[in-house]
Amino acid sequence: MSMYGRDPWGGPLEIHGGTDSATDDDRSRNLQDLDRAALSRQLDETQQSWLLGPTETKKKKKYVDLGCIIVSRKIFLWTVGAIAVAAFLTGFITLIVKTVPRHHHKAPPPDNYTLALRKALMFFNAQRSGKLPKHNNVSWRGNSCLQDGKGPGVSAAIKDLVGGYYDAGDAIKFNFPQSFALTMLSWSVIEYSAKYEAAGELAHVKDIIKWGTDYLLKTFNSTADTIDTLAAQVGSGDTSAGSTTPNDHYCWTRPEDIDYDRPVIPCSSCSDLAAEMAAALASASIVFKDNKAYSQKLVHGATTLFKFSRDRRGRYSPRGTEASTFYNSTSYWDEFVWGGTWMYFAT
Prior knowledge:
By secondary structure, the protein is mainly α.
């Protein structure tokens, strides 16, 4: 059965009944085939946009949240990279340093001049009087003559004469040769400090000088500008006329075992001795110029001694004295020149 109607656009309108139902499946299959064919073709961008619609692009965050602070992502990445590179380089360099073999060169043996210098300086360590420091390198020497200057007849300005150097095999302390020895040591340091340092003896020789200058400062009132006396000698060696009085020549014993009185010989008119002592303190002040306070103390003491030598003229070893027997002096003019020269350099 078929029905015909009028097409509004001028054509016939045919309506099929149930007899055409068998062909509907065929048409459905044909449509599916068309759909698969359509899907198998590659769609252009316009068609894809119809099907998928607009896509949203995710933007990378510009900042990194570290919890306590927020930093730029770029800075964060650069920082992490720099730390990683630095750690790598540090580890690499450490690995190289640890694995490269090291060659240790033994120090050359000291030359004969260095050995001679060390033995000469050791002589001063062996001659030290007083309470010895722990670093004194003569093991068989100990503290000695700790009562020097504490006996009767000593000036009130001089209360302690412990320290200094013994003169020779005996235990007498003479200021005159001791001052000259200290001046020569100071002069050698001033001229050859680099050589002393190269030999490893600079600190040692400066310690030797200071041990002597500390003692010389005790032998007079070093804080005063003017003095009228000083201690010229500690101990006695007079054995003339068969004297049996215990002293440093009658009793040949170790300084550590001395138990007899040691007299102090003062001097109130001794230009040669005072000028020699001034030279010792003035030259040492140059050696210790890196220690401003001590250097100025030495300069002040030297100035006081030199003034004393000029004001109270006389020889320290007049005829008949013990000093004339051991270290006689014939005049004081050469000591004026010697002391004045070192005063000039020091001031």
